[in-house]
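FIELD: query
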Amino acid sequence: MQRKMIGIFGAVLGSMLIWAGNAAAEERFSDLQYSKWAADGIEYMAKRGTVAGYGDGKFKPAGLVTRAQAVTFLVRELYPEQLEKPSEGTTYSDVPETHAFTKEIAIASKNGLASGFPDGSFRPDAPLSRAETAAFLTRAYSLSEGKETANWSDTESHWAAAPILVMSSNGLVGGYSDGTYRPNQTVTRAEYAVFMSRLIQFERQAAIQAQDWDKLISYMTVSEQVGQMLMPDIRQWNGKVTTTVNEGLKSSIHNQDLGGLILFDKNIVDTRQITTFTHNLQKEAGDIPMFLGIDQEGGVIKRIPGGTNLPGQMALGATGDSALAEAAGQLTGEELKALGLNINFAPVLDINSNPDNPIIGMRSFSSDADLVTRLGLATITGLRQSGVIAAVKHFPGHGDTMVDSHLGLPVLTHNRERLDSMELKPFQAAIENGVEMIMTAHIAFPAIDNEQVTSLKDGQRVPVPATLSKKVLNGLLREELGYEGIIISDAFTMDGIAEHFGEDQAVERAVNAGVDIILMPQNSAAAHQTLVNAVKNGTIPIDTIHASVERILELKAKYGLFERSESLTSKLAQLNKVIGSQGHREVEREIAERAVTLLASRDGKRPDSLQQEDRVVIVAAEEETAKQLERQLKLASNNLSLQTEIAIIGQAQTKETVAKADYVILASYQFRNVASQFGWTAYQTLINEMNTRNQRYTLLSLGNPYETIYLKNIRSGLAVYGKQEPNTEAGINVLLGHQEATGKLPVKTN
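FIELD: result
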């Protein structure tokens, strides 16, 4: 029996009844107002693409179903691939080749769904009875007798007593208040649609409970299957920020059968709102819950307002402490899970070996492969312990690039030996430790795949990025490294893909290369239709889709996504106990304090010290940053009677202001740009002048800690690896002598 190709074939017209075969053919019928009891079942079957109306927007729910129409319904559910073959005809005396449903009746008879009468007829146009309905459906589906009581006064000696009992005892059909079943009563279109929808949903639930994913997939339409493989973002709808489940979002979820969504800070107002939002999103998901993911790396990439403000991965790298990395992963997961999120696109396993990397930088743990591996594995463990999926990134490695794949297509030209010893090392270790989701990089690796294609941007030949490379994803990741989990792409809105490849081509190529989930397609509806068409046309094998969907369902079950019993009230009541809890804040503070690293010092032990009644000038590129440092300095130094003033780097009066200071905090922040092209000259000028005057100062690195490469003769410097409040507060405390700078620089600067 083959149910796996439901929903992709054309329509059959018979007796003025349209049997629609495309998922896009779902209708909203205008004549169900008096059949509301059946509306859900009718619309469910219409969405499956099995039955539609009469072409005028009407379903005619009270119309009778004929025997021919009934078996056609079943054939389109169970054997659609056989409908593509030439008709074999039938031996029934009353089913000529010209009959509208000859092929369907022949297929039904061949597969044992229905039989004729002793006189050699099939009676195709005779109305279907309730007894025949039970017989047809129990033949079509392998049902056993259920647990419900079903004793009808008029079925004991009926020829269909057995199938009626099976259907009734499973709650799929009912009788009447007088204790009868009325087996010979005819069945309406509404009733038949309801019987079918109940049975299919019953079988799906049984498959879910048994975690029989092959069986569940067999009851999923192609639309549903490829929908599981899409994970669009929902930042806006009709130009407005999306913070609730609006009608447009509902429509997308239902029409595209979406299996997941990625959320951003724009979708989040506060913790109660996001918890309500995710709860309501899952209510729209039907019987297969959604992956709801977010980038909560910590540090510079943080989407959740409020809550714990972790200092970031490079700060963890400076501590070198695996236990802290695990604690950071666990508390992050606990907070995400409390908010209804189940995937964290973290940790970053890229090794930031190139100071000129414009996009990774302090998002990485280190430039050392072993340290990245050790802390990455610990973070994965912490997330897993919290019940949140870790999606590590960006395979095979984004740490040694000078192009941001959001803006272009980077090419990494290292040979395979170098890739094995550096870029691939953390991913190999993560695979060996059971990581369950890996995000691809939109980066070309000619040492693995040297194929080139013509760019749609300018007609030039460009290399194929890892996301679209079968050699990288199937050959290297699955076959060589032995990875069996989910492969999710990086965002398809990024220029590394968007500029050079049309979305239709890119989506199809990615799936054929080995991608299980397309993240952030530019147009999710178009991507969905592309995949449906590709399955129909055979350009993506159905077995490829099934393998991806099975991996997705397995992981959803493993992390308890099918267990959705907790009420929204209960979820909201738990928020204050989890989000930003005292224990989480203590981990945040410990990471920040232990990360502070001495970059330069006159005595080799500590930065220049602040003294009583010093006039302190705080210089930064942004006023907001300078004010944050000023506020923290005042709060922490109440016994020093400091006078403070802020200045902005590069402004005309800044040099004069600095010259009058007793102490200068010179804050630098280099991130999301090429370090060698950063505006270091203004900083060097101030450093030279302060050195000439023998002023006390500290260069406070708030971003990528590469200042010592580009700035000379720094006499006092600290790195805190981020301008978040915990990071800068820890740096201020070191300047005031409240704590030592014990961090170790996790990247090479020579």
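FIELD: remark
The chain has 27 helices and 20 strands.
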